[in-house]
Amino acid sequence: MMLHKFSAALAWACLAFIVYATFAPPALRPGLSTNETPPIVVIERVGAFALLGFLFSIAYPEDRSFAVAIVFGSAVLLELLQYIAPGRHARVIDAIEKLVGAGVGVIAARLLTSEI
Known about the structure:
There is one protein chain. The chain is mainly α. Helix content is 72%, strand content 0%. The longest helix has 22 residues.
């Protein structure tokens, strides 16, 4: 029970961090390196959503559809919201990278907990 509460708090904190990283001004955005090459950006996107998918799947094992809806929905919604955010741009490839990461995280959690 305590593990689920802790993992739920981590999952929601991770989502909040991703929202911040998505819409923060460029100077305040976190990054893996000072020179953000395209491969690094892909690793960041896939990794962030893999972690998010993993955490939500661990936090809500009894409600898979909720966890999947939050993770995949946030990937798509955050990308779409970039259409209206100043200085941001939405791209289909970015959404695909986020969705791939989300899927990897969900599957990894299910394999770890033997719930596939």
